[in-house]
């Protein structure tokens, strides 16, 4: 019997989980995430050793012409005790360099719709000045918060992580760091030091062509009850969040019903109850992926006899 595969692509939901894991060595989508590549012009010096200010920075955009404070190891601040090294390399940045207006920085990068990204960065505070910032991601100009992060630890770099699923049709994505609290030297005087920013693909969209669904036989138990078999073959069943049987009778072809199997398995049985006597039913197995794509098996049919069990009818 010829196997027929059909699929229906649904919108990938931002909260959906994915199971197509990628290599841990996936490239960082962020350029200059450790801020090592400093501009060759526009530097403003400080009274503290190895501390500089910029209004423009390589691969990053600083909003509203604010100043971004740059710390180069070994750091020696005149005002307070501070760690001596960056989290990665020799350079880190402080968002809250201006006494009244913290810097907001962002970067745009190419993305593949449906991929799940991991955002990771190092965060630390200044002594007496707690750090609190928000990370936003989304299409440029339409970013939404994916997490709020804060610390009072000024001696250690603490790595923060968050995840983000790229919506359908979004091929350019922006990551933005927004200061929420910078300490006590004015409203936003100090703090929110970040370094070693990375965005990596950790899971890719599921390809429905890699999932094979076949519809098994139906065994009619009586005039209102049948047991139907389905089979799902996938490289990884964790890609599947639901399997079952969809069915309808010939008089209600536009009113198909789905009955979910008790659990996701390669082979499963589904009970179809409250059927109409002496009625032809068409049915097919289905599988729903974890990103809401529906894959169907080949259609088959059965008939509910009143006097005996029906044979399978194709």
Secondary-structure blueprint:
Blueprint: E1 6-8, E2 20-21, E3 44-45, E4 49-54, E5 61-62, E6 68-76, E7 91-94, E8 105-110, E9 116-124, E10 131-138, E11 144-151, E12 158-165, E13 172-181, E14 193-204, E15 212-222, E16 225-233, E17 240-249, E18 257-260, E19 267-272, E20 280-289, E21 294-296, E22 300-303
Antiparallel strand pairs: 1-21, 2-14, 3-4, 4-6, 5-8, 6-7, 7-14, 8-13, 9-12, 9-14, 10-11, 10-13, 15-16, 16-19, 17-18, 17-20, 20-21, 20-22
Number of strand segments:
22
User: Could you give the order of the helices and strands?
Assistant: EEEEEEEEEEEEEEEEEEEEEE
Count helical runs: 0
Estimate the global geometry from the Cα principal axes.
rod-shaped
Helix content: under 10%
Largest sheet: 8 strands, antiparallel
Distance between the termini: 10 Å
Instruction: Decide which structural class fits the backbone.
Output: mainly beta
Strand content: over 45%
Low-confidence stretches: 1-21
* Mean pLDDT metric: 84
Q: What is the CA-based Rg, rounded?
A: 29 Å
For this entry, give a set of tags.
mainly beta, 314 residues
Verbal overview:
The strands form four sheets. Strands 2, 3, 4, 6, 7, 9, 12 and 14 form an eight-stranded antiparallel sheet that branches. Strands 1, 17, 18, 20, 21 and 22 form a six-stranded antiparallel sheet that branches. A five-stranded antiparallel sheet has the order 5-8-13-10-11, with no helix packed on it. It is rod-shaped. It is an all-beta fold. Mean pLDDT is 84; it is low at 1-21. The protein has no helices and 22 strands. It has strands at 6-8, 20-21, 44-45, 49-54, 61-62, 68-76, 91-94, 105-110, 116-124, 131-138, 144-151, 158-165, 172-181, 193-204, 212-222, 225-233, 240-249, 257-260, 267-272, 280-289, 294-296, 300-303.
